[in-house]
Each structure stands twice: as structure tokens, then as C-alpha cells.
Amino acid sequence: MIQCKPKTKTYIALGLVLVVLISGLIYILNHFATQRTFGLWFYLLSATLITLVTLLLLVKMMAAYKFISAGKEQIITRLPLKGMTKHYNLPQVLVWEEEKMISNKREFKQLTIVFDDKNSFTISNHEHDNYDQFVNYLNKKVASKKIDAVKKSKSAKQKNR
Fold it and tell me: Which keywords, in A-to-Z order, does the entry hold (predicted)?
């Protein structure tokens, strides 16, 4: 069974960034409480900005914490923070699409799968392990349900006419 899970390296790096942000927020608040060498506007602005960035990073980390497994003619999706696990048989896959982009000389791939209950699941190669194996599995088992970028661009051109 192929299991795509979040990469540990990604969460360690984001966790370190969170530690730095929270340390900076604590420092700013402590500096305000003890020394107050800057104006009030500086403390308000910096504390607000650091708090917003911290919250956005936490939400991003929580949203990307999901697992998907494939094998034995079924796909299992798990969202541990929501406490949800869903089992899908391969015929329940409506469509799937892999988008590729090149950014900073690195290839970024994102896979989106839509199931018959209108739920969708998205993973990327930079944030999840075994991404390529999962795409190969989908190519073998449900290749007919793949949306190609060429088909998509042709249909968009036809709609514009």
C-alpha cells in the first residue's frame, strides 16, 4: 500500500520558524513591559504583525497535515486534526489532475483528486512523501479519469470563442 504523508523535514523547518516568531513576540512584549524605549505604535504594529504571521503559518501547517493511502483497489484519506477517515473504491474517483509548475529551477507538482461525494483531496510533491508513486498508481488504475492540461486549455479556448 502506498502511503503519502507529510514530510518530517517540512514540519521541522516550519516549527523552527514558529519558535523564532513566538520568541520574537515574547521579546517585543517583554521589552514593552520593562523598557519601553520605542513608541507605542512600534509595539502595537510589531506585535500585531508577528501574531498574524504566526497564526497564518499555524493554519497552513494544520491544513497540510493530511494523509492519503492507495492500494488494493481503494484510496483512504485521513485528516487527523478533523478526526476524519474516508475509504473510497477506485470507481468512486470522478477526476484527478496533476499540475506542474517550474519555480526557481525546481519543479512543483500538485495532485488534486475529486471523489463522487464531491470531496476533493490535494497533495504536493514538496510537502508529501511517496508523491510520485501515488501518481504512478493513479496512472495505472484510473488513467481514464485524468484531466490533461492540454484538454483543459483546449476547452478553455473553445469557451472563449
Answer: Membrane, Transmembrane, Transmembrane helix
Contact 31, 44 (CB under 8 A): no
Q: CA–CA distance from 55 to each of 48, 80, 124 (Å)?
A: 11, 19, 22
> What's the pLDDT tens digit per position in 72-101?
999 999 999 999 999 999 999 999 999 999
The model's pTM is 0.81
d(CA 105, CA 99): 16
Residues 90 and 149 in one domain: yes
Same domain? 49 vs 81: no
All 3 cell numbers of residue 68? Answer: 492519503
Q: What is the total count of domains within the chain?
A: 2
